[in-house]
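Budget justification, computational time. The allocation requested in the original proposal was used primarily to generate structure tokens for proteins on the priority list. As evidence of use, we reproduce two of the resulting records. The first is shown immediately below.
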Amino acid sequence: MDNDDEEEEVSGKSAGKGVGENSWAEMSIEIPGFRDDDALPVFLAAMLTEALLACGELKDRLYINRGFHWKLYIDILLLSQPLSYPLPLLSLTTHLALLSARLPKLKSELDEDPLFDDDWDASAYLYPRDSAGKRLYRPPVTLLVMAVGGNIIFDPTTEELAVAEAVLAVSVGDSTSSPKAPSAPSNLRLLSIRTIDPPSRLTPPGVANSMNTATGGSAPTSSQDAVAQREGMEQQGVWNPPRGGMRRGLVGKMIKTVVEEGGVAEEVLDGLAAVES
């Protein structure tokens, strides 16, 4: 719990609504073989923190009064070297951990120095439930989505990522701003999207038999000739690393597959709810 040095005016806002700050939640990730300041753990922590703060409900739950607030520290330790890109694993385990997190019950009045009930059974869930025991809202999840050709793959393996043409980290959460309308396609909302540079972009292009002297071909005589011959290699089934950006239609298709009604995000969240219960 932290003490705010300067009391902030919250006129026009109900207590705890829209007064939370992004600095009230911090995340750190430790991966075997990586330093704490290496790009991978820092980037993973930034993506997961961005999704948690984008929904807005979490940081507002950390508000106590104008002088005090909770500060949430999320420390993740991977015990073994990940076999693939660990983003989905970290997101799902963080989701389950936050569902079981609790805050002590506040006994003092709103603007008094906080006094808490030491009875843990009286504590409240960080992500509260209604009278029927149903979650009012849930932590977001971040899914790793890749595309190769016309195929969209979720939670790809290392081998699949090696040939990916586009990779997205898509974060989704519950839509709590308004109740779901009968015609609404889904009760989920898109929180953030991050593009991830696939390792396939760093691989060299393949060499066709027609350009390989070891297989009876003839090597190109100039760089222009080599480029001209490589342009037609895609039809021959020779590997070419992806070039350029992602097509808008492909990005839209990948996002729709995640957030649509009955889509992958709903299946994942329903599965996590079953794990919790």
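The second record produced under the same allocation is shown here.
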Amino acid sequence: MYSYYGDADVDIEKIPYTIEQLPIKALYKTNYPDIKEQNRLLFQHEMLFSISDIDNLSSTLERWFDSRKELDSTFNLFFSIWYKPDMYLNNKFLNLVQVVESYHRRRIETNEENNSSLQEREESYNCCLIKKNKKKEPYLRERLEALLKFELILDVTNELIQDKDSFLTKVVHTRNYLTHYRESLKEKAAKGKYLYCLTELLSFILQACFLTEELGLTSDKCYQLLNRNLRYQYTLDRVRKKNCFDCPKENL
């Protein structure tokens, strides 16, 4: 028997351990499925946009770098899905739900607070003092609903989400089930291909927000770019065939 370095003999009978107590170090490497490298260039219609779609590249890049600093953790959650495509579907969905909550809190809700008048903020503050009650954080449903009503992406959300109430309810039930695993929510949560579709819908809603609010593209340009994307077209086709929600109304 050799030592760890392989340069000295070790007499197993003279070491201060029994055979059962002999310490063993196991060295191993975590194995992830290899991502196959593409042997061809991506076509324009496979990407969300290309440099030829940007009117003012320097301004767009400047906006993106500023947003990257402000929303670093939000973007990290979102792009982890794209840089780790073999992530479990449940985790992809939960990541996107967390992105929705984070993005709404740090961008939409903050913008609303900044746009309110000083008098409105003072009245709200005084009201809180009188009630001696701090303002509660919005629920997931309220945050997601606010994104669906975001003016810059209405063309996209109205096209993708035909039944907003069912969509909101399904997202909330699925998040709660995957997070808390309550048996009462099991039949109400999206699964399989329906969970995949729900995940895609959340992803495109967020991408529309990023294109308009973060990169400064117009609503029309955002709508045009998304409808050119093959993945978006596939998701939209499923929506039109009403193949995104599997539960009847009583299970929503």
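A brief technical remark on that second record: The radius of gyration is 25 Å.
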